[in-house]
Amino acid sequence: MKIYRMFKDYLIEKRLWEVFIYLFFGGLATVVNIVSFTLSYQVFDLNWPISNTISWILSVLFAFVTNKVWVFQSKTESFKELIWEFSKFIFARVVSFGMDMATMYLLIDLLHTGNLIAKLITQIIVVVANYVFSKVFIFKKVEIIEDEKADSSPR
Predict the structure, then answer these.
(1) Radius of gyration from C-alpha coordinates of the chain
(2) HEC profile for 93-120?
(3) Model confidence over 47-83: pLDDT tens digits?
(4) What SS3 class is residue 72?
(5) Which residue, 18, 101, 30, 96, is CA-closest to 63?
(6) Contact 57, 94 (CB under 8 A)
(7) Contacts of 38 (CB under 8 A, 6+ apart)
(8) pTM of the model
């Protein structure tokens, strides 16, 4: 546990903890995506677009929870705020899903790359895009600026 604490403190000092934890949970979301894609495609014999859609839905739900709770530690005051945050998250993920589907189409149908190789390549692109979307547009941190009494008092 001491090694973990030292590692975490080092990353926090270098301002890399959020990126690290995002990549950790992004990696887990990628595992959810790839495993569910493989099961859908190979075990249940679904075509790649349907398999990709199923894997996308499962990984997006997983990612929302992990990003909200552990990565960006986003707090919402009301159910309405939660729905707004989730809506922005889904919108951004639909955009990255479009990127995912277009890249899969390019790699599988046009360039005849193997399905799993194509899936791995698309996941790298999607993880980077999703971090940017989440950091910039979805889970914004609100900073509270304290009024200093010295600035407001007469001199």
Answers:
(1) 20
(2) HHHHHHHHHHHHHHHHHHCCCCHHHHHH
(3) 988 998 999 899 999 999 999 999 888 888 899 999 9
(4) coil
(5) 30
(6) no
(7) 116
(8) 0.71
